[in-house]
Amino acid sequence: MNLQNRMASDVATLQWVGGTNGYLQMIDQTLLPMEFREIECHDVETVWEAIKKLRVRGAPAIGIAAAYGVVIALQTGTGSERPDFDQRLTEAATYLAESRPTAVNLFWALDRLQNLAASLPTLSNAEMHARLLDEARRIEQEDLEMCHKIGEVGAELLSKGDGVLTHCNAGGLATSGGGTALAVFFEAARQGKEIHVYADETRPLLQGARLTTWELMRRSIPVTLITDSMAGWVMQEQKIQAVVTGADRIAANGDSANKIGTYSVALLASLHDIPFYIAAPSSTFDLSLTSGSQIPIEERLPEEITHGFGTQTAPVGVDVYNPAFDVTPAKYISGIITERGLIQPVTTEEVARVLSIDQD
Ligand code: MRU
């Protein structure tokens, strides 16, 4: 499957338009589901702002957006000397890396472009610029393929008629393909397994309510929206046979950072003897970290909680704590679904073994 014939029913969350002097088009996810609007990024500041404000969000998607952001940043001044070009590349990567701290895909994509430039020091600026665009496109294409494989690996874990719970949005909007957790559901449905998805609304920014339900309904997958606090009760009612979520960064031992609330869902699943799976591409692993305690957790503005979507719901001046992610320890994760296969049990050894499986 290539980017040109991406499924019509899929959402093209990001799209590069034109050649090296082109621009990045993306769906403004902050407006969904009430309004479908695409925005154009013609400068690196607009890309940075889009990542920071979650117009583009989800670990793989922000990595791809950042890669194209570098290409945009280098559109001016390609006539200067190569060291100047490299210097501007470093500045653009450093700037984009400051947009959000938790999803490792962002840093992984930026490192990939910088390493490529470092390996080709004799190319002219124009040639190097073209190679960087090719690399950004390759990152996008690879992500599409990884999503597809994750769907195939994960669908094996579901049975006909299963109720499955997910948290946040790990769908097509968050990747260049069909998503990670949602790719598993799409593939299971395609195989006729007749699953029913329960989507946590995912406070405070409601990615589950706004985005996951939107994607599933577009694909005609049965979905029921619940508030985050209902997850335990629907498990108790035996409506859930498996939980599948995405991840933003996975440490070498399998500890996984994902949207705030994921840890609570994993604990609830464990107490109810329900398998809890993470679905993520290899680009979401950070093997430089031995455990999840080293993962930086983004803290966002108090207004996301006190004035959600513009409506004040708490007293002015109240003290607020707003971590955007939490870390689920590996011991609560039944398996990690990757494009290279299923990591099970989730141990340092098994993470290393599965990730080293050659894909070619
Ligand atoms: O703050 P967000 O909306 O970027 O958080 C996204 C998530 O937590 C997703 O579950 C994760 O990035 C995986 S997306 C395939």
TrEMBL record:
Recorded GO MF terms: S-methyl-5-thioribose-1-phosphate isomerase activity
NCBIfam families attached to this UniProt entry? eIF-2B_rel, PRK05720.1, salvage_mtnA
Signal sequence annotation = none
- Which residues are substrate-binding? R57, G58, A59, R100, Q207, N258, K259
Q: Which UniProt keywords apply?
A: Amino-acid biosynthesis, Isomerase, Methionine biosynthesis
Record: active site? D248
Q: What positions are marked as the site Transition state stabilizer?
A: C168
Report the catalytic activity: 5-(methylsulfanyl)-alpha-D-ribose 1-phosphate = 5-(methylsulfanyl)-D-ribulose 1-phosphate
Protein name (record): Methylthioribose-1-phosphate isomerase
Which GO biological process annotations does it have?
A: L-methionine salvage from methylthioadenosine
The record, for InterPro entries, names: IF-2B-related, IF-M1Pi, IF_2B-like_C, Initiation_fac_2B_a/b/d, M1Pi_N, NagB/RpiA_transferase-like
State the species of origin.
Gimesia algae
Q: Which family does it belong to?
A: Belongs to the EIF-2B alpha/beta/delta subunits family. MtnA subfamily.
Organism lineage: Bacteria, Pseudomonadati, Planctomycetota, Planctomycetia, Planctomycetales
What pathway does the UniProt record associate with this protein?
Amino-acid biosynthesis; L-methionine biosynthesis via salvage pathway; L-methionine from S-methyl-5-thio-alpha-D-ribose 1-phosphate: step 1/6
Q: What is its EC number?
A: 5.3.1.23
Annotated PANTHER family:
METHYLTHIORIBOSE-1-PHOSPHATE ISOMERASE
The UniProt record lists the keyword Amino-acid biosynthesis? yes
Please tell me whether the keyword Amino-acid biosynthesis is annotated for this protein: yes
Q: What does this protein do?
A: Catalyzes the interconversion of methylthioribose-1-phosphate (MTR-1-P) into methylthioribulose-1-phosphate (MTRu-1-P).
